[in-house]
Design goal:
heterodimer, A: about 450 residues, alpha+beta, Beta-Lactamase, Heat Shock Protein 90, 3 domains, five-stranded mixed β-sheet, about 50% helix, rod-shaped, B: alpha/beta, Rossmann fold, four-stranded antiparallel β-sheet, 13 strands, about 40% helix
Chain lengths: ~450, ~230
């Protein structure tokens, strides 16, 4: 933008100077032509007599010179250097050659700059060659006024041109940058895991840029997918042997009566559970990343989804005599547009935490509320509560509460929920219940 | 596990050691397990034998367990199927249920959780009426509905009470140590208080009050169910 305006200013100044120069030359040439005509005309009206010279001054020439302006006109006619008539202070150019071509020059008379045409010619008077010098001069006030007027007009035109140029520069810059800005806006509005190709309409000139950007996104996506697949495969390969270890250990424990062996078997099963839990959460994390990238939006019935998640976890809760209550829902169905799998993973993690940290015979309650713009899911437990975690902000991975060391966990559950919130534009917070336990709130845009 | 006496269970699992462990577990519960490590063998077994329950792995050497499941349902075989898999994507679970599975369990799992899921599936599919009640003395227990009938009243037991009483009623007059009971009642990785088993014993004793059947404490050894 700035270089374009600077160029417009320079072009305007050059235009002004050139206009002035051309005008000056044109006016000068006109005046010179008139002055030449005047001296030639005076010479034509000069004739020699027997003993002298007779001059019939052509006043129409002076009228012609005076017609174009109020400029003063001076003339002088000398014969062999002696003044015959005219203004004495008008000096004749002594260097002018004798001939029929007038010589033009500039001089000053009475403090006024004048343009002068001088002509020297031979006359024969009584057979004697004599030199007659004729000079006609005219002040240049008209030329200056013309120049001033033209300069003023040129300045107006120059400023107009400058303004027009700035406007055009703005217009061109804006129209050229508009697709770039739109592209930048489209890319910046994307979620942190949105790695789809850029398909924003762009001018032909920007296609190489968009193509390069998409190439980069594809490479990044490929790398990410490889990582996710690796995690998923790793989890699968870890969990299958773990299930053998756990089953065998459970059988051995059931058959063993040796306290020392039973203690070891308990330790083995505990370690298997921790490894299994970590593998599950890593798999969930990979799933969240993958789904965030795909951005699969769907209209889903939240109450229905909550009931499905509750049903899937109810057998695990029943084993510990923990009841899941999912009854307090709005009369009308609550629909949101989001990736159902992501919302399900978030709900499963919230409910799983509530069950995990509850004591037998307690109740985990799931509430669903709705206002104009937000659906709020609350999972309320009566358990031990949670200490030492960020209850409102983002959660660090592998960071667990300070009071849950005896419960199997990976420290990924809350981080997964936070990442899902970033993707779907929701918020997640934890709150301690007054009577004990934790209340987890997930707010989702409707 | 005593959901039904002599329940026939088909375990379709290519990981031999895991399949054998599961089979052992079902045998200890008095059931009759059979193992198949391929889809083809499982299909043949289902054709010639009636099973009460199928435990199905997904990734099998000769095919996908989901395809087998779909073919079962297409052939109108309504045997309850619980899918076992090492993958835990929610979409997998949804797919499984769409394919006709009755439930889904993620490896590795507690035997107790597998039992709970089997119980829930059987309750849905078979119904309480076809289940054989457990009777000891003057009390009757329906394992699927968790209903305990005593001479005085009828109770609906909570999960742990049900499983504990089921253990006793399947083996009346047999002594169980606290450890044995804890192993089968509680999650193994759960932090257990020494008094936890006593709490549940106490709850059942309250429900059995007025009955001739009772849980006796063998001091320093354990508990047993007796009926006078």
């Amino acid at each position: 933008m700035l270089p374009l305006v600077s160029a417009a200013i320079v072009i305007s100044l050059l235009f002004l100077l050139v206009m002035r120069q051309i005008t000056e030359q044109a006016v000068q040439a006109t005046q010179d032509a008139l002055l030449k005509t005047a001296v030639s005309s005076i010479l034509e009206h000069t004739r020699s007599t027997d003993y002298n010279v007779e001059i019939d001054l052509p006043y129409d020439v002076f009228t012609m010179l005076g017609a174009i302006s109020e400029d003063k006109i001076y003339y002088r006619i000398d014969l062999d250097g002696d003044l015959l008539t005219g203004y004495e202070e008008l000096e004749l150019a002594s260097t002018a050659p004798v001939g029929l071509d007038p010589v033009l020059s500039s001089t000053v008379i009475r403090g006024v700059k004048v343009r002068k045409a001088t002509l020297r010619s031979r006359l024969f008077i009584s057979g004697t060659p004599r030199v007659i010098s004729i000079a006609v001069a005219q002040s240049q006030l008209f030329q200056e006024s013309i120049l001033a007027e033209i300069s003023r007009n040129a300045t107006i035109i120059g400023i107009g041109f400058l303004a027009f140029s700035i406007f055009m520069a703005l217009l061109v810059t804006t129209s050229f940058l508009r697709p770039v800005n739109l592209l930048a806006d489209a890319v910046s509005r994307r979620g942190p895991h949105d790695l789809r190709d850029v398909k924003h309409p762009t001018p032909l000139e920007m296609l190489p840029l968009v193509s390069s950007l998409n190439g980069f996104i594809r490479r990044l996506r490929g790398t990410l997918r490889q990582t996710e697949n690796f995690i998923a495969e790793a989890a699968h390969h870890i969990r299958t042997p773990l299930s053998v270890v756990k089953s065998e250990s459970q059988l051995a424990l059931r058959k063993s009566t040796n306290p020392e062996s039973r203690k070891h078997l308990h330790n083995i099963i505990g370690a298997v559970d921790r490894s299994s839990r970590s593998a599950s959460q890593l798999l969930d994390h990979a799933l969240v990343l993958y789904r965030s990238e795909k951005n699969n939006m769907d209209r889903l019935d939240l109450a229905n989804l909550i009931l499905q998640v509750a049903d899937s976890l109810r057998p695990a809760a029943d084993l510990r005599d923990i009841s899941i209550s999912a009854e307090t829902f709005p009369c009308e169905p609550v629909f949101i547009t989001a990736d159902p799998i992501l919302i399900e993973v978030a709900l499963r993690n919230m409910l799983d935490n509530a069950i995990k940290y509850s004591n037998p015979d307690q109740i985990v309650q799931i509430l669903l509320k709705m206002d104009d713009a937000t659906a709020e899911i609350s999972v309320i437990d009566q358990g031990r509560g949670i200490e030492g975690v960020n209850i409102t902000g983002p959660r660090k991975r592998f960071r667990r509460g300070s009071n849950v060391e005896d419960v199997v966990g990976s420290g990924l559950g809350l981080a997964i929920i936070s990442e899902i919130c970033v993707t779907v534009g929701g918020t997640f917070s934890l709150k301690k219940n007054k009577g004990g336990g934790t209340c987890a709130h997930l707010r989702l845009p409707v | 596990m005593k959901l039904k006496n002599n329940m026939k269970v088909l375990i379709v699992e290519d990981e031999t050691k895991l399949a054998l462990s599961l089979a052992d577990h079902f045998k200890l519960g008095g059931h009759i397990p059979e193992i198949s490590d391929t889809v083809a063998t499982a299909a043949e077994l289902v054709c010639v034998t009636h099973y009460d329950m199928i435990l199905l792995d997904i990734m099998l050497p000769d095919g996908d367990g989901r395809a087998f499941l779909r073919s079962l349902r297409a052939d109108h075989v309504q045997t309850p199927v619980i899918v076992m898999t090492a993958r835990s994507e929610v979409s997998d679970r949804v797919d499984m249920l769409d394919f006709g599975a009755d439930d889904y369990i993620v490896k590795p799992f507690d035997f107790a959780e597998l039992e709970a899921r089997c119980r829930a599936v059987l309750r849905r599919n078979i119904g309480a009426s076809t289940t054989k009640d457990l009777v000891v003395g003057d009390i009757t227990l329906n394992p699927l509905t968790a209903e305990l009938q005593t001479p005085e009243t009828c109770f609906t037991l909570r999960n742990r009470e049900l499983r504990l009483l089921e253990i006793f009623m399947n083996a009346p007059n047999i002594l169980f140590t606290k450890d044995q009971l804890a192993d089968r009642l509680l999650s193994i990785s759960e932090t257990v208080n020494e008094n936890t088993i006593e709490v549940y014993i106490g709850r059942i004793r309250k429900k059995l009050a007025g009955s001739s059947t009772r849980i006796e404490t063998m001091r320093g050894i354990g508990y047993k169910l007796t009926s006078s």
